[in-house]
């Protein structure tokens, strides 16, 4: 009969130690879960900041691209005007030479 009582005491002690161990583990897990929650919140904040910065950079990029396209168009217009001016000068020079040659020829015939 003593063995039965000792077995019951041993089982009760094992259950008590198990409960104590489980409570310690639960306490440690709560602290770890709180740290994990804080870390998750920080990650969400950082990802939100990255998204906002990405959107701002996208807006800036589209503004820069638009500005480049406008300036490119202005440069192309300027180049085309310069080409047209060169052609006009060449035509004027040719006409001037033609007139000069005509005047010169008429002086020679006199």
Architecture overview:
- The protein has 110 residues and is mainly α.
- It has one domain (1-78).
- 98% of the residues lie in helices and 0% in strands.
- The model has no long low-confidence stretch (mean pLDDT 90).
Highlighted features:
110 residues, mainly alpha, 98% helix, transmembrane, membrane, transmembrane helix, DUF948 domain-containing protein
Helix-strand sequence? H
Helix-strand category = mainly alpha
Kindly give the count of domains. Answer: 1
In what range is the share of β-strand residues?
Answer: under 5%
How many beta-strand segments?
0
The overall pLDDT, averaged over residues, is 90
**Overall shape:** rod-shaped
Major sheet: none
Instruction: Give the proportion of residues in helices.
Output: over 70%
Report the radius of gyration as a whole number of Å.
Answer: 47 Å
How many DSSP helices? 1
Low-pLDDT segments: none
Quote the distance from N terminus to C terminus.
Answer: 159 Å
